[in-house]
Amino acid sequence: MLSSLFRKIIMLTTAFMIYKNRYRIMNWVLSFPTIRQVAVSTTMKIPLIRKMFFQSTFRSDVAGK
């Protein structure tokens, strides 16, 4: 009983700490070139994400001409 409660408390604390530092953890993980390359190539294989990326990157500003 007590060990089960202690385990749940540790798991909740760990989950909270990961959630609280999620961007710091993601920046640390993506600082490795191989992992970053795999993440980008995998993400760019998803059609919706690729379409949104290219639309925002290569949008033509017709109103500015």
Q: Would you mind describing this structure in some detail?
A:
This protein has helices spanning 2-20, 22-29, 33-44, 47-57. With 65 residues, the protein is an all-alpha fold. It is elongated.
Q: How would you briefly describe this protein structure?
A:
It contains four helices and no strands. The chain has 65 residues and is mainly α.
Radius of gyration: 20 Å
Uncertain ranges = none
| Largest sheet composition | none
The total of helices stands at: 4
Give the integer mean of the pLDDT values: 90
Tell me roughly what share of residues is in helical segments.
over 70%
Strand content: under 5%
SS-based structural class?
A: mainly alpha
The succession of helices and strands, N to C, reads HHHH
List the keywords.
single chain, 65 residues, mainly alpha, 4 helices, elongated
Helix and strand topology:
Layout: H1 2-20, H2 22-29, H3 33-44, H4 47-57
